Amino acid sequence: MKGVNPVACSAAATAFDQIAGIYDNVFTRSSIGRAQRKQVWSSLLLAFPKGSRLLELNCGTGEDSRFLAALGRSIVACDVSKAMIDIARERAAMEGYEDERLKYLQVANEELELLHGAGCLDGAFSNFSGLNCLDDIAPVAAKLAKLVRPQGRVLICLWSRLCLAEGIWFLLHGQPKKAIRRLWGKARARIGDIRISVSYPTVTAIRRAFSPWFHLESHRAVGLFVPPSYAEDWIRPRQKLLSWMEQMDTRFAQKPLLRNLGDHVLLEFVRCPH
Questions:
Q1: How far apart are CA 160 and CA 163, in angstroms?
Q2: Are 32 and 231 in contact (CB under 8 A)?
Q3: Which of 173, 229, 261, 264 sits a CA distance of 20 to 30 A from 157?
Q4: Listed residue (231, 259, 271) closest to 31, CA to CA
Q5: Dihedral-angle region of residue 156 (phi above 0 means left; psi in -120 to 50 means alpha; beta otherwise)
Q6: Where are the extended beta strands (E) located within 127-249?
Q7: 153-207, pLDDT tens digit by residue?
Q8: pTM assigned to the model
Q9: E strands, the chain, in order
């Protein structure tokens, strides 16, 4: 994996470069960000036992990779944004992680073929919507199939096609169009000063994209009761309510129908043996 070249400049890279310095304050360290991330962490720890060799896509500032590395997993973490990677490397160094346990590379989702020297990985994961920035997720699935060993697992967390909490939030704020904005499947999102295309694929579409190489073992909502991040100012002084919402997510996030209605959906795939 040494010698991987930096990716070419793109709208997504430039956009996330712009917000890298504030991302943790806006989301990672927010009450909502912590609540939703804990839900994903629980699934990651169950899917990837200690000693697993993993690939992370869209690693951002490295919060997930540092968490897993501290608990005995080895991670190669990638992101399209140089600024995000720089912050992730700096924080890993400050926290004393060894190079062999945790590596950061500036590699786009579209260029995972650059990682073919990685060997046979035990699994891969992507947290919090990085894959929503792709028009077509199937090429990523195909490239992951060449990196992940048979019976290895891939966990991806994306914005869902329909978010129950978002619908209620915008209806209460008199914005019915925003309440159903995800249903169209495509949108333009402002990241920093740049607008990028965002997709909201259905679980069926994602399963179909992965199906030649992976089978979908399970999926669950992330943020079914815990609201989207733009509700942070409202929920911050209501920590008891947030705690109740987290408990409700734990109880209901895997129920049929409800598991498709979270702010995000977390899908767990298993690599086919062939």
A1: 6
A2: yes
A3: 173
A4: 231
A5: beta
A6: 148-159, 186-191, 194-199, 214-222
A7: 999 999 999 999 999 999 999 999 999 999 999 988 888 788 888 999 999 999 9
A8: 0.92
A9: 53-57, 74-79, 102-106, 121-126, 148-159, 186-191, 194-199, 214-222, 264-271
